[in-house]
Design brief:
This protein is mostly helical. The protein folds into two domains: 118 residues, Rossmann fold, CATH 3.40.50; 73 residues, no CATH class. It is built from nine helices and two strands. The protein is globular, with a radius of gyration of 21 Å. It starts with 21 loop residues before the first helix and ends with a helix.
């Protein structure tokens, strides 16, 4: 949140800052139902067939549980409480400093990631972004008291304003649909650059995740040891998805 944000007070956020709310839980549950429909010929009714791993962040763990609840509504043989149509699901996590798969870097590579981000800040891509967004940056710095000295702050600003709008909070008149559209574009560029603005940054951000995925694919391939799980569900915070979403 920015220094001048009127909704910095915790009273506006009954779930706490940065936590999943009911709307988010419902979206994740619906995502799970969509996955169930999409892969109905592949998934069974046994929740043990999926391996779920999450960043060790409350909203990520809760999101994983909500998705799995949508994916695996209990059938008769797994229904343990007639008053609750829900199956407990194991979600694995590792403390952020030691998580090199879903955390942005983990303790071991943090200094190197920071160094790469500084290189991205000096890149032509960021220079072009700043040139394109002069008017918007001036407006945001004036209204929010937030200096855009690092490119990824576009992502933070858009995310904050979008969350406040989704929460039904009244936003200032200067946050017009046109500005939101431009901020969405700038945030998308910043999101992409933060995850893969350099080749080394891509490796640092997502190398361990891709290695884990390929290792599990090798295990499941013909001739490999037969795994118990048929699928794997990963719930990161940001960075790994920033890289894997890039075309």
């Amino acid at each position: 949140m920015s220094p001048k944000d009127r909704y910095n007070d915790i009273k506006y956020w009954p779930e706490g800052f940065g936590n999943l709310n009911n709307a988010g839980r419902l979206r994740m549950f619906k995502l799970g139902k969509f996955i169930r429909r999409r892969y109905s010929n592949f998934l069974t009714d046994n929740i043990r067939e999926v391996y779920s791993r999450s960043s060790d962040v409350d909203r990520c763990i809760e999101s994983s549980q909500a998705v799995l609840a949508g994916m695996y509504p209990p059938t008769a043989r797994f229904q343990w409480n007639p008053d609750l149509l829900w199956t407990p699901a194991p979600v694995h996590s590792v403390p952020p400093p030691d998580d090199y798969i879903l955390n942005e870097a983990g303790r071991k590579y943090l200094a190197e990631v920071v160094s790469e981000i500084r290189l991205v800040q000096k890149s032509e891509a960021v220079k072009k972004l700043y040139e394109e967004s002069v008017k918007e940056r001036e407006l945001l710095e004036r209204e929010l008291g937030y200096e855009y000295d690092m490119f990824y702050k576009f992502k933070c600003t858009y995310s904050t304003l979008d969350i406040e709008q989704r929460a039904g909070l009244e936003l200032p008149a200067w946050f017009t649909p046109e500005l939101k559209k431009k901020l969405y574009r700038y945030a998308g560029i910043a999101f992409s650059l933060a995850g893969g603005g350099t080749e080394n940054l891509k490796r640092l951000r997502c190398g361990h995740l891709l290695d884990d995925i390929t290792r599990r694919m090798d295990i499941a391939s013909p001739g490999g040891p037969k795994p118990q799980e048929k699928s794997e569900f990963q719930q990161p915070t940001n960075a790994p998805s920033e890289v894997t979403d890039r075309k």
